[in-house]
C-alpha cells in the first residue's frame, strides 16, 4: 500500500499541470470530465499528500468552472485535520469555498476549529478565523465564542485583527455573544496601543443596521475622527457618523468642524468624497460646510481638466443626493457640466446627469427642458433614448401632472414621443393618454386630433411598440368622436388593410371604435337638425360649470364637430381624378352617398372577420355587421345607391337613439382606493388564503388580461411566429387591397414634406419661436426659470380631476424613515452599554450548559465565564467612558434594589416578571443620551 501511494503521488498531475492542460484545449469540456475522473480516484487515496493535491485541483475547478464539489465534503474535513500547514491551508480554503450553513459535515469541524484557534501558530489561528467568518453558523458561533473572545486580546496584531473582524459574523449568528465580547471589542476601538482599523470596520457594519443602539459610543468615534491619520479609518468613522448624526442634532453640530478641517487639508479623493457625502446626507442644515462641500465637488470631481470618469460619476451622484434634498441651487451652479454630460461616452455618467436635469424641471421650464431632451433622445442609442423618454413621462405625470400647465402642449409631446423610432414606452404613453382624457375635459379636442394623426399613418402599424399607443388612440377617438374633424376619415383609418398587422386585442378595439363612429354618423344623418355630441357629465361637482363654459367656447371656436357646418374644400384629396369619400364632403358632410360608401366599406372590411378565430375580433365584427343589417331592415332605402331619407319619418332612429344613449355616459377616472370603499355584503365570507384556486383552476392559464383598461396590466404582444404565418397566407390579398387603398385614399400615405395637408393640418400647440438646438440655450433657460421658480402664466391651467389624496405618486423620492427594529442583538448591545447586563439572562429557554475548556468553566448558552478570574477581569476591564457610565447606573440600580426589598413578596414577583420589558424600554430611551463633555 505504501508503494502504491508513492507511485500515485509520483505520477499525479499537479495544479500547474491542470491549468496548463486547460489552456491548451480548444474545447475544455472533455478535458474537465477526464480531470474530474482522476480527482475522484485520487481523493480516495490514503496518502494525505495525494488527497490534498486532488482537493486543490477540485477547488480550482469549482472556483473557475463552477464544478460541484459538495460530494467531497468529508475529504475536506480530512485534509483540514492534517498536522502539516500546507495541507491544512488547502483544506480550509476548500471548506470556505464549498461549505455553507446547511452542510452536513460542518458539525465535525468544531473541535478542529477550536484546536486551531488555540494554536500557538498565528497562521493556523488565522486560517481558522477566516473559515469561521465565512461558514460560521449558530452552533459554531456559540461553541467557539470563548476562543474568539480570548483572541480579541492577543498580542499578535495579525490574529487580533482577524478575531475582531470575525465578531461581526459571531454577533449576527449568536447575539448572546455580545454579553461576553462586546466590551473587549470596545477596548480594541479605543486602545492607544492597538490599531482600530478592524474594530471601526465592525462598528461601521453594525451601525448601518441599528445606529440608535451605538449612540453611547459617540465619544470614542469622535476621538478617532479628530486624532486618526489613517484615511481608511476616517472613511469608516464618517460612515458611522452619517448614521448617528440624524438621530442626535447636537452630535451633528459637533462634527461639523472636524469634517471641514479634513476637507480643507486632505488630498485624498476617497476621503474627500466621503466627507462630502456625509455633509450632503446629514449636515445640509449647516450652510457654511454645505457651501464648502459644493465647492469641493466642483473643484475635485466636476473639473474639466480631470478626465477620470469615475470621479465625474461620483460628483454627479453627490449632486443627485443634494437634488433629492431640495438643494437645487447646488445643481444649478453646476448645470453647465450636468447638461454637457448628457453626451458623455460613459453610460453611468449620462444616466446620472439625466436624473439631475429632471430634478431642475419646474412649471416654468418643463417645455424647454423636455424639448431639448427629446432632441437628445433622437441622437442617442436605444437604451439611453428610452431612459430619457421614461424620465420625461415620469416627471411630467408626477403627482397627477402637477408641473403641466398647458395640457394641449403635453398631449402633442406624447404624440411626438410616440413617433420616436426607438421608443419602447408604449404602455406608459397609453396609460397617460387615457388618463388625461378622463381627467382633463378641456384637452379632449386636442387629444382626439393627436390620436387622428397616429391612426391615419400606416407606417406605425408595423411597429410592435406602437400597438398599445394605437389602442389608446383608437379608444379616445371612439369615446369622443364628436371632436373629430371628419368621422369618415377616421372610419377609413380604422379599417385600412394594414390593420391586420395589429394583435387581435388591439384590432378588437379598432372595430369597437368603428362601431361607435358608425352610430355617430348614422345618428347625425338621420337626425337632421340636431347636433350630436356626447354630454360632459359632472366629472367633479366643482368643475361642472367650468366644463360647460369651455364646451360653449369650443363650439364657438369650431372645435366641436357640427354635422351641419359648411366644410368647403376641407380635408379633400383627389388622386388620379378619383375623389375619396372623405374629400366629397362639401356643404353637408352627411349625405346619402357618403353614408352608402361608408357602409359598403365596413361590410367589405369586416365581412371576412365574421369567421375569425379570435373571439374578441369575431364578436365585435359581428356587432357592427349586425347593426348594419338591422338598419337595412328598418330603413329599406338606406343601402340604395340613390335616394334620400331626409324628408321621411325614420323609424330606425329609435334604435340609434338607444345605442347613442349607451355611449353618451361619461367615463371618469377610478380612485385607487375605490375597492376599499365598497362595503362587504352581509353573509359573504372571503377566505384570506385563496390557495384552493390552484387546485380548482390548475389547468387554466391565469395570465393577466390585456383588455383595454386604465390599469398597468402587462400587455403581451402576440407578434410571434404564428402571427407571421397568418400574415404570409394573406400577403397576396393584402397587397392587392393595399394597392387599391392607395389609389382611393392617397391621404393616408403621407409624403415626407411637413407642409402636406395630411397629418400636419394644424400648427403644434405652443410651438416655440426659437427652438432649442443646443445645450447653451438650455443653460440660459434653466438659469432663468429654475432660480425664479415662477409658474407659467401664458395659459390658464385646466382643471385636473383628483379623486382623493391617495393618488399622489410615490416617485417623489421622499420615503418615510423606518424605525429601527429592537432585535436581540440591539437589545444586548444596549444592555451592555447601560451596565444592566447582569440582570438579563439569555433569551433561550433551555438551561445553561457548562463545561470545562482549558481549565475554565464556560456557559455555552449565555457565553458567561464565571469561574476564571483572569477572564472575568478582562471582561470587567473596559474603556473609561463605558465603565464610568456603567458604575453610575450600577449604583443607582443597587439603591433601587434596596428599596425593592422593603416591598411585599407579591410585588417582587410582579416586578421580576416585567423587569425584562421595563429594562429594555429604559435602555432604548437612555441609549440616545451622549455624554455632555462631547456635546
From TrEMBL:
Known role: Part of the AP-3 complex, an adaptor-related complex which seems to be clathrin-associated. The complex is associated with the Golgi region as well as more peripheral structures. It facilitates the budding of vesicles from the Golgi membrane and may be directly involved in trafficking to the vacuole. It also function in maintaining the identity of lytic vacuoles and in regulating the transition between storage and lytic vacuoles.
Predominant location: membrane
Native source species: Papaver nudicaule
Domain of life: Eukaryota
Cellular localisation: Endomembrane system; Golgi apparatus
Comp. bias intervals (Basic and acidic residues): 561-570, 896-908
Region entry Disordered, spans: 560-588, 752-822, 835-935
Ranges of biased composition (kind: Basic residues): 884-895, 909-919
Polar residues bias locations: 574-585, 920-929
Gene3D superfamilies documented for this protein: Leucine-rich Repeat Variant
Protein name in the entry: AP-3 complex subunit delta
Protein family according to the UniProt entry: Belongs to the adaptor complexes large subunit family.
GO biological process: Golgi to vacuole transport; protein targeting to vacuole
